[in-house]
Amino acid sequence: VQLQASGGGSVQPGGSLRLSCAASGILFNIYVMEWYRQVPGKQRELVASITTSGSTAYVESVKGRFTISRDNAENTVYLQMNSLQPEDTAVYHCKAVRNPGLEFWGRGTQVTVSS
Predict the structure, then answer these.
(1) Strand-strand pairing, 9-11 and 109-113
(2) Mind listing the pLDDT tens digit for each residue in 11-63?
(3) Would you say 91 and 109 are in contact if contact means Cβ atoms under 8 Å apart?
């Protein structure tokens, strides 16, 4: 199983990035997909999730700015991030969840928002 995240980078406040997480080795369309972020010294935070049927949920701080989506044909989940702020700076990870005992993490991608 491999989850390969990409799309991170450095942007100025107000900018946008689109993260991608390509999955292999799993039956992608039966997994809930999640994006987390982590800042050194802080707990990992669930940012957004999307169910197998496409229902989405977001942490309050990103509502209206971030959009999670999935392409089951491409085995990929996306996180469109707009109006980025310095507090969005973190390493972003994707996770595939089938049930609490069956989940897989991908390597993170760094997002830095700074002027």
Answers:
(1) parallel
(2) 999 999 999 999 999 999 999 999 999 999 999 999 999 999 999 999 999 99
(3) yes
If DSSP codes are grouped into helix, strand and coil, which group holds residue 24?
strand
Distance CA 75, CA 28 (A): 6
Please state, in angstroms and rounded to a whole number, the distance separating the CA atoms of residues 101 and 10.
35
Q: Are the C-beta atoms of residues 108 and 38 closer than 8 Å to each other?
A: yes
Q: Which residues pair with 98 in a beta bridge?
A: none
CA distances from 71 to 21, 34, 51 (A): 10, 14, 12
Q: Which alpha helices (DSSP H) does the chain contain, by range?
A: none
| Rounded Cα gap, residues 34 and 98, in angstroms | 11
- C-alpha–C-alpha distance, residues 97 and 32, integer Å: 5
**CA pair distance 33, 97, nearest whole angstrom:** 6
